[in-house]
Amino acid sequence: MDRLIKALAYDGGVRLYCASTSELVSHALKIHGMSPTATGALGRFLTAGALMGAMLKNDDDRLTLIMKGDGPLGNMVVCSDKNAITKGYAQNPLAEMPLNTLGKLDIGGVVGHNGMMTIIKDIGLKEPYSGSVQIVSGEIGEECAKYFTESEQIPSAVALGVLLNNKGEVPFAGGYILQLMPDVNGAVIDMIEGRIQNMKPFTSLLKEGFSLEEILKAVTGDDNLVVLEEIKPEFRCDCSRKKMEAAIKALTPEEKKEIIEKEGCIEIKCSFCGKVEKWYE
Ligand SMILES: [Zn+2]
Question: Is it the case that residue 246 has pLDDT exceeding 90?
Fold first, then answer.
């Protein structure tokens, strides 16, 4: 079962968010019918969205992540909230690349090595907060870590993984975000950096049966870390016929009539969940 935990290590000096997301990513794969590499890319981006959504404070706060790379995948969009209720899509879900030189899914290749990643936080202020970073590697975890460090000035490490089996299923997915608070001791930082470099991939640890708590203890070296909260990340779309109707209201009666005469009906498909609604008049 998917889980997301929030924890503190070293008396609050290190803030942690860690999740398993195989059900969430499998749901996205089912509704979007993605290629393996697109699943690897969107699965990581959805996991990042769930983890970052869990950082929000209020029920109405919303987070949107947009990855606009120049690779064959096109744009990816993910939305999430404080309960890690997450939705997302990739523009070209069938985009595929050969495996990279390490024999792994070429996530950077399918996303692209040029472009922008933008994060928009709507927290009820007049203008939503928005921060962007230039895409360099196209590796989602690296780009997210750079966003926190450059745009929010919080030194962070981000690990994300999606494991596909030979049937094209996603038995393991997940990741963590580790953030250093200003008062954390330099020796602790050095130790954590060393541990992260020597860690196996996140999904390998899940596959070996490690719990999220055990993974965070291994990453930080703090056996006394405190879990503050646990939530269940989930793929869920909040679209409705009523919300879609707003797009139709923008049409003039003549435009509506013309589409219905030509196509038989007005059809709107939700990019996030694939749901189709039709209007005949
Ligand atoms: Zn939808």
Answer: no
